[in-house]
Specification:
The chain is α/β, with parallel strands linked by helices. It has 7 helices and 10 strands. It has 2 domains: about 1-80 and about 155-165 and about 185-195 and about 205-228, P-loop containing nucleotide triphosphate hydrolases (Rossmann fold, 3-Layer(aba) Sandwich); about 80-155, no CATH class. It has helices spanning about 40-50, 75-80, 95-105, 110-125, 140-150, 170-185, 195-205; strands at about 1-10, 15-25, 30-35, 55-60, 65, 80-85, 160, 190-195, 205-210, 215-220. Strand 4 (about 55-60) and strand 5 form a beta hairpin.
Length: about 230
């Protein structure tokens, strides 16, 4: 699914977001990427989303070399990904239903598929009764559920999550994690950048820990502070 080889991302100010990172993630894995602020967690997500370019090394998602994606082809690549951010990034003037449907319409999905899939995914995340509400009328947890529904409505093979529970209270955060686990059990590969140590310790997934832009720990079924 993901094959990163000696990847370095250098920002305009000369700071390395990640430095000589090599990482392989298989189909259907659930991987936590952890580390302190500035360790490179979000850079990994941005690199996979192609929001930032490699300065050195290679990164593949499936058979796609991220360095070879042209600007014209970039939207088509991103349509194959599900992405959930800490700040939701919902369209404020569209309802819950319309926000999720929009993700299908940009892929030129047929109207009958939109009418079938959107209610199904809203039911999955518990938002059927909020379909006509606007983002400003939702709680933070409901907004994140809407963002998650939008991310998975096209059944992407890969879901990228950048601090998806960062703005949520503990109970709501656990609800989002239960949804992510359910999505993963259905076969979606999930890469989640987080600093939520309680979630990482409890779920015991694969943990990739970054420090100073480098991988210093990569352990199956691990916690936040476990040593190798």
């Amino acid at each position: 699914m993901i094959d990163i080889k000696n990847a370095t991302v250098t920002y305009y100010n000369g700071v390395k977001g990640i430095n000589d990172v090599s990482l392989r993630i298989g189909d259907g894995e659930f991987v936590f990427v952890i580390g302190s602020s500035g360790s490179g967690k979000s850079t990994i997500i941005k690199m996979l989303l192609k929001e930032t370019d490699l300065s050195a090394g290679e990164a593949f998602v499936g058979d796609i070399n991220l360095s070879d994606i042209t600007r014209a082809r970039l939207p088509y690549y991103r349509r194959k990904l599900g992405v959930v951010f800490q700040d939701f990034r919902l369209l404020p003037n569209k309802t819950v239903y319309e926000n999720v449907a929009f993700a299908m319409r940009v892929t030129e999905a047929r109207n009958r598929d939109v009418r079938r899939n959107v209610p199904a995914v809203l039911a999955l995340v518990g938002l059927s009764k909020r379909a006509r509400a606007y983002p400003g009328q939702l709680s933070g947890g409901e907004q994140q559920r809407c963002a998650l529904a939008r991310a998975i409505v096209n059944n992407p093979p890969l879901l990228l999550a950048d601090e998806p529970t960062g703005n949520l209270d503990p109970d709501t955060a656990w609800g989002i994690m239960e949804l992510l686990e359910d999505i993963n059990r259905k076969g979606t590969t999930i890469v989640m950048a987080t600093h939520a140590s309680d979630i990482v310790d409890s779920l015991q997934k694969r943990v990739v820990a970054l420090k100073g832009g480098r991988v210093f720990r990569d352990v199956e079924r691990s916690g936040y502070y476990n040593e190798i």
